[in-house]
Amino acid sequence: MQVAAVESEQAVLGAVLAKADRYWDCAQAGLRARHFSCDLHAQLWQGIEGALHSGLPLTPTALAQRLGVRAGLEAMGGAAWLVRLATGAAGMMASARDHALLVMDWARRRDMVALAQALLSEAQDPALPTKEVLDAAEAGLLALRGQDEARGPVTLAAATEAALAAAERAFQRGAVPGVASGLAAIDRSLGGLADSDLVVLAGRPGMGKSALAATIAQHVARESQVALFSLEMSALQVASRLVAAQAQLDLARLQRGEITAAELRQAMARGQALKPLHLAIDETPLIRPAQMRARLKLLAQRAPVRLVVVDYLQLMQGDGRYGREASRVLEVAEITAALKALAREFEAPVLALSQLSRAVEGREDKRPLLADLRDSGAIEQDADQVWFLYRDEYYARREEPPAGAAGERVQRWQARLRQGAGQAELIVAKNRHGPEAVLKLRFEARLARFGDVG
């Protein structure tokens, strides 16, 4: 099967040979030598690129002399054939850029055919696992789609217009320019979650990272679509947490069935309020960024995705850019870069949960530091904001004085428990848009829910 547009390829070449300035329009559109179906056409385009980038004269005769026999041009008629291409381009109805776009479109079609043939061969190979074939299909299609979405330079005028429009939208919305979290401390101090930002929420186990992410996701999902990639918990477990919080019932008792008939009726009634939420839960384990992007593309066909939550990034797999033998540090770097790219592509904040290293537990003050981010410094580098969640109550309960301890020591411990009861600190350790901060939140452990203080 031949998938090509030879006439359009010759039209582009002739147009540029007739007027060299047309090359820059075609190049800005993304046209490259690899898009040409004919080897001769590809070599001619490379010759044109070389001449213009080197400041050499671009004429049919000069190009023919530089390429000569090496490109097989003599068989076509040499310089005389190139002159005919340039002369014929004078009467083109479409612009050189339009023909360039058509050449690129046919190139993508050839890539689609090649991908389909490769997948057909792999699908018929019993030695290959089905999941591996599906992953290859997904990655291949995403790579092809990505060719359509490459962005060129943006003029300052266009960027300024976009900035002014964003300022006007922020003014109309009020004090929260980003996606409102529903928590006053975050929205007042940080302006919500900014579009296109990668926000990393990190903490040691037991701090409530998933609960905070669910609290924010539930608020946003009231009016906008939210994608929650839950790699640690199933969709059923996530929904159970939300039902418990909504019905104000103890999560552990609800999950074990240790509730009364009245509490069950309360859960059933109040749980109905969750159904209208625009929250899509993906529980795919070890998901890859390419798979995540594909799922988001499907969701975006229904409505714009306003928030992406990843729980949590250390449970993701990379797309294999560095090969199977790559270190975990490189793989995490690939993942965080991909999450940042997703935030920009979908113009929505990505809230990615992250584990911290055990170094925290060895310090007297167990409030996290940026150096505690697990697996990679790339997490700090790629994130627009880094939030740490810290609950002193959690550590206080683990440090209960032994039986028979001095009364003063017990009193200090009890005072610490009272002071930290239901309190949480959200430590903003990195913020590209403003200063760092420590925000106070309320945490209801039995409901796995965060709220405002006071």
Shape: elongated
The radius of gyration computed from the alpha-carbon positions, rounded to a whole number of angstroms, is 29 Å
* Biggest sheet layout: 9 strands, mixed
How much helical structure, as a percent, in the residues? Answer: 40-55%
Tally of DSSP helical segments = 18
Summing up helix and strand content along with how strands pair, one would put the structural category as alpha/beta
Mean pLDDT: 81
Low-confidence stretches: none
List keywords for this structure.
454 residues, 9 strands, 12% strand, alpha/beta, 18 helices, 50% helix, 9-stranded mixed β-sheet
Q: Can you give a write-up of this model?
A:
- The chain is built from 18 helices and nine strands.
- By secondary structure, the protein is α/β, with parallel strands linked by helices.
- Strands 3-2-4-5-1-6-7-8-9 form a nine-stranded mixed β-sheet, with helices on both faces.
- A hairpin with a 4-residue loop joins strand 8 and strand 9 (449-451).
- Helix 1 (6-18) packs antiparallel against helix 6 (96-123) and helix 2 (22-29) packs parallel to helix 6 (96-123).
- The model has no long low-confidence stretch (mean pLDDT 81).
What topology does this entry show?
Elements lengths: L5 H13 L3 H8 L9 H16 L5 H8 L11 H11 L6 H28 L6 H19 L7 H18 L10 H7 L7 E5 L6 H12 L4 E6 L4 H13 L3 H6 L4 H11 L7 E4 L6 H14 L2 E7 L16 H19 L3 E5 L23 H5 L2 E6 L1 H7 L8 H14 L2 E9 L5 E8 L4 E3 L3
Parallel strand pairs: 1-5, 1-6, 2-3, 2-4, 4-5
Antiparallel strand pairs: 6-7, 7-8, 8-9
